[in-house]
Specification:
45% of the residues are buried. 9% of the residues lie in helices and 43% in strands. The longest helix is centred in the N-terminal third of the chain and has 23 residues. It has a 27-stranded parallel sheet that branches. It has 4 domains: 133 residues, no CATH class; 164 residues, no CATH class; 81 residues, no CATH class; 149 residues, no CATH class. It is mainly beta.
């Protein structure tokens, strides 16, 4: 009798805990309700609300094992039956009990177009399983398939009315290390120029502090905020969450070719995450389609590493831009936004990094401390600013290195096959407020095509207000660079340090409405060319006449 009473009480306790936790997570996990009634373990929907019942016996079994698999909840894994509800339910239960999630070895999970996402808060091993993501009929293109999230809640900060560039501390007590995001919506920056012109983005910054508010100066505050309209602390999880393995295939959408971005991948919104051993392929791209915002999409977090991962570049499509003219649309397999200390290590792509039929694989905005190490990818790109970036032991394809930002940009032991070695993006003012170091590298201009080579390219008319003062790198140091310019035009005069940033600036009569702060000095050591022609300053020597070039 006593044994029966104890079992009944255990059942009630489990049922109560599971339902309560589900209520707290409803907004995050698409209204998943978990119960533990004395019935079989099953997953079903009721008015699009996901109902999950786990028998008390299975609860005890899963907790004792420390892990749970998709098949434990009824996943078929035959590549035809939509298993998304079961996948979401499995992760919801694992999150509740802190369990490892394992995909079933050799299974193929089909994921259709319904709106359902799986929230990952525990270690996940996708192993040798295959996931087919069918984007041909999607209910909500903005809904990620997997969202990696933290159980720690954001904290709205009060009584901070301003912060300053390079400020070392904010006066606020915190529960532990936090990622601080700050915005002043009254100031617009990154006011884009060109065919994709826009009115800019609200002034923003993101930085790490400890529990006492001390700023990590490896990723300092980069703007003065005279006003703050929003400031939030995102607590940083201290333990590393690991997501390993998995073979993912996206069946590409057939939507109209316009800027209606699809986000049907893995969204990482938690700090301290390792993604390792993953592969993403793309099938059935046709002559049109909407662009993608990144299969791996990292944002509002810190300390994320993507390692030993194979990705795929998306086909390039055109649309009518903001200026009313056709433009190619950016479309990405890697996307990083408002994030700090993000590393890509030993990553590559399935398609040719030199084939311009495919758009450059990575884009980023508002980031700090980005790293490529031992990567073979078609592009590194920082749109709306990166503070500090490092590319080493890597090969960059046809779109090369595109960057604007600040701090130190380091490229070493790498090969770049873009039209220039570093392109300072003209649509955001060709600005780099800091230094560039190029060391032990090879430059193959335009992948070996016949072009006039330049190391640093960009454009600045001085007539457009980008919302900030624009700078060229204060100092550029180039050591041990081999320029493979054997194929070049007949009138080739040799590679230039700088491209012609402003063909109209020929003498002192040209006036910039908005000042461009030019490079102070260039330091050169051991520069060799296949053409045997000497590295020269620029096709526009007047614009760069005050740059000091030192040869060691």
């Amino acid at each position: 009798m006593m044994k029966c009473i104890l079992l009944f009480l255990m059942f009630l306790l489990l049922n109560c805990v599971l339902v309560t936790h589900a209520q707290e997570k409803n907004s995050l996990e698409n209204s998943i309700v978990i119960t533990s009634r004395a019935q079989k373990t099953q997953v079903y929907t009721n008015n699009n609300k996901l109902q999950v019942n786990i028998s008390p016996k299975d609860v005890l079994k899963f907790k004792a094992a420390g892990s749970v698999s998709y098949s434990d909840f009824g996943a078929i894994g035959n590549g035809k039956t939509d298993d998304m509800d079961v996948i979401a339910a499995t992760h919801a239960f694992a999150n509740l009990h802190g369990l490892l999630v394992k995909a079933d070895a050799g299974a193929t999970y089909y994921i259709g177009g319904k709106e359902r996402r799986a929230v990952i808060q525990t270690n996940t091993d996708f192993g040798t399983a295959t996931f087919i993501i069918d984007d041909t009929d999607v209910k909500n293109r903005n809904a990620a398939i997997f969202t990696v999230s933290s159980g720690l809640k954001p904290i709205k900060l009060e009584n901070i009315s301003s912060i300053r560039r390079n400020q070392q501390k904010i006066d606020v007590p915190l529960p532990g290390p936090c990622l601080i995001t700050v915005t002043n919506s009254n100031i617009k920056q990154y006011i884009r120029f060109g065919l994709n012109q826009n009115d800019g983005s609200s002034q923003t910054d993101i930085f790490i502090v400890d529990k006492n508010g001390k700023v990590d100066m490896n990723a300092p505050i980069i703007w003065d905020f005279d006003q703050i309209t929003e400031i939030t602390a995102l607590p940083i999880d201290e333990n590393l969450l690991k997501i390993t393995g998995g073979r993912f295939t996206t069946i590409a959408n057939k939507a109209e070719s316009k800027s209606t971005y699809y986000s049907r991948g893995i969204s990482i919104r938690r700090s301290h995450v390792l993604v390792e051993g993953m592969q993403h392929n793309i099938k059935n791209e046709g002559d049109h389609g909407a662009p993608y915002g990144g299969f791996i999409n990292i944002g509002n977090c810190a300390y994320v590493t993507v390692k030993n991962t194979i990705l795929t570049g998306h086909r390039t499509y055109s649309a009518i831009g903001a200026a009313g003219k056709p433009v190619t649309m950016g479309t990405y397999d890697l996307s990083v936004n408002r994030a700090v200390n993000i590393s890509f290590v030993n990553c590559s792509q399935t398609n040719d990094i030199n084939n311009n039929k495919y758009w450059g694989i990575m884009g980023s905005n508002f980031c700090k401390n980005l790293l490529y190490d031992n990567c073979t990818l078609s592009r590194f790109d920082a749109h709306q600013g990166v503070a500090n970036a490092t590319i080493r032991n890597s090969t960059l394809g046809h779109m090369g290195i595109n960057a604007i930002g600040s701090g130190l940009l380091t490229i070493e032991n790498s090969t770049v096959r873009g039209r220039s070695f570093v392109n300072l993006r003209r649509d955001y003012g060709s600005t780099w407020h800091g230094e560039v170091v190029i060391r032990n590298c090879v430059f193959v201009p335009a992948g070996g095509k016949s072009v006039s080579a330049s190391l640093i390219s960009g454009f600045y008319s001085g007539q457009h207000n980008f919302g900030y003062t624009c700078y060229m790198p204060e100092r550029i140091t180039i050591e041990n660079l081999r320029i493979d310019d054997a194929i070049h035009p007949d009138n080739y005069q040799g590679p230039a340090i700088f491209s012609n940033f402003n063909p109209e600036m020929k003498d002192n009569t040209y006036q910039e409405k908005f000042r461009y702060v030019k490079t102070n000095e260039v330091i050169l050591k051991n520069i060799t060319t296949a053409s045997k022609k000497v590295l020269r300053l620029s096709d526009n020597p007047f614009m760069f006449k005050d740059v000091k070039v030192k040869t060691n």
